[in-house]
Structure formats: structure tokens, C-alpha cells
Specification:
By secondary structure, the chain is mainly alpha-helical. The protein has helices at 5-11, 68-75, 104-112, 114-126, 138-148, 152-167, 173-182, 184-198, 208-212.
Length: 229
């Protein structure tokens, strides 16, 4: 195909110029195709891909968090003494369970009149001086009434558990049940002596001078003479 002389003189080439095809009216234009670009690569854990020459290491595994008291308990396991629920180390009873023959007065009261000894011990916990003590108080009558139906051991077991919790003494509910059911008199004597020992520091003798207070002695007091003008 020969090109026109006008085109050769204008562009200096024999190739015809590019002519864009005309779009006819009413026909849609062909879609423009875009070059495909792949999505950016992602590294581990959703982070951007590392650059070349950089090695990304995964984060270290997290250790389970431990409370300070758990760490201390694990560190001291097997070496620390047993600890009660409310106060420090568990304390031992001052007298054994079978050490019930002394003193003789407490032993006889626990054997012949256990309800009176039980009521006395329970009152001593509230009033160490026993100033308002009544022999036949509520605890004494309750223990005697339950004896008639064979359930006094349950009442004694409950009160013994309260005593252990108050002074953080060694023992368990099972031991309290066995002691109150099999040998209640030995348990009553042990509880009375324990409470008596624990409450001795709460009873302080009143000094004589403090009880009498200040008294004015007119005979020993002398006043200087006064001159009346």
C-alpha cells in the first residue's frame, strides 16, 4: 500500500499513521484490561513479609502467669509448717487427749457431771474471770437435754470445732466426732484445761492501790498558818 506524498513529507516515513477505530453509536466500548498485580506477600502471624536478608523469628511461648503466693508456696513446698485457715502455723494442744486424770477435781467433774464442766468451759471462753458464771447455764442445760436423746456428742463436737478454730489448734472434724462419741469425758477435760491455759493471760490481778484509788488523809496533811489582817 503506497502512502500519500503529504504523509511522507510530514513524517518522513512511508508507514501510514495509526488511526483509532471509530466507535459506532449505540455500541459499548470494549472493556479495558488491566495488568494483574499479585497481592503483597504476608509473613507469619499476619505481619508484612520480611525484607531480603532479614530472618524473622516467632515470638517465644508465653509462660502461664502465677500469683506471688503460688510461687512462694511452690518454692516452700515440703519445708513450711502447716498453716491454719486464719492464723499462722497450727498449734498443738497443751495437754493430750488421754491426759484426763489430772487435776482430780476436773477429772471427777468431767466423769460424773459432764454437763456442768461443758457449760463452765463454754462460759470461760466468753468470760475468763467467771464473774457472771452460773452452774446451770444454757450450755449445761442443752448438753444435758441432748443426753436424753443420745445426741450430746454432736453438740460437743460442734463446740470443740469452734474452739479449734478460735485458737488455731490441731485436729479435724473427724477426730472431734470420734472423741466426742467414744470418750466425751476425756475431751471435756482436755478442752477445759486448754481454755484455762489460753485465758490465763486475759485475767490480770487488780492492784490494791488502783482498786482503792486516791484517798485524802487529813491527819497527814498540814497547812501553813495564815495571817488574818
Amino acid at each position: 500500500m503506497a502512502s500519500s506524498p503529504q504523509y511522507q513529507s510530514q513524517y518522513g516515513s512511508s508507514a501510514p499513521p495509526y488511526q483509532q477505530p471509530q466507535q459506532q453509536f449505540g455500541q459499548p466500548s470494549p472493556p479495558v484490561q488491566q495488568a494483574y498485580s499479585p497481592p503483597p506477600a504476608q509473613g507469619a502471624y499476619g505481619s508484612p513479609a520480611p525484607q531480603q536478608g532479614y530472618v524473622q523469628t516467632p515470638p517465644p511461648a508465653q509462660q502461664p502467669h502465677q500469683q506471688p503466693h503460688q510461687q512462694q508456696a511452690a518454692h516452700m513446698a515440703g519445708t513450711a509448717p502447716a498453716v491454719g485457715p486464719h492464723r499462722g502455723p497450727v498449734q498443738e494442744w497443751r495437754n493430750g487427749f488421754w491426759d484426763c486424770c489430772s487435776p482430780s477435781g476436773t477429772c471427777c467433774m468431767g466423769y460424773w457431771c459432764p454437763c456442768i464442766l461443758f457449760g463452765k468451759t463454754q462460759h470461760r471462753l466468753k468470760d475468763p474471770t467467771l464473774q457472771s458464771y452460773d452452774t446451770f447455764n444454757g450450755n449445761c442445760i442443752g448438753w444435758w437435754a441432748l443426753t436424753c436423746v443420745g445426741l450430746q456428742w454432736a453438740f460437743q463436737m460442734m463446740k470443740r470445732g469452734e474452739l479449734r478454730e478460735q485458737y488455731n489448734l490441731d485436729g479435724s472434724g473427724f477426730k472431734d466426732c470420734c472423741g466426742a462419741y467414744c470418750c466425751p469425758c476425756c475431751g471435756l477435760v482436755q478442752e477445759e484445761k486448754e481454755v484455762l491455759f489460753r485465758t490465763q493471760g486475759a485475767v490480770q490481778p487488780v492492784p490494791t492501790g488502783a482498786a482503792q484509788g486516791y484517798q485524802k488523809n487529813e491527819a497527814q496533811m498540814q497547812y501553813p498558818p495564815q495571817n488574818v489582817g
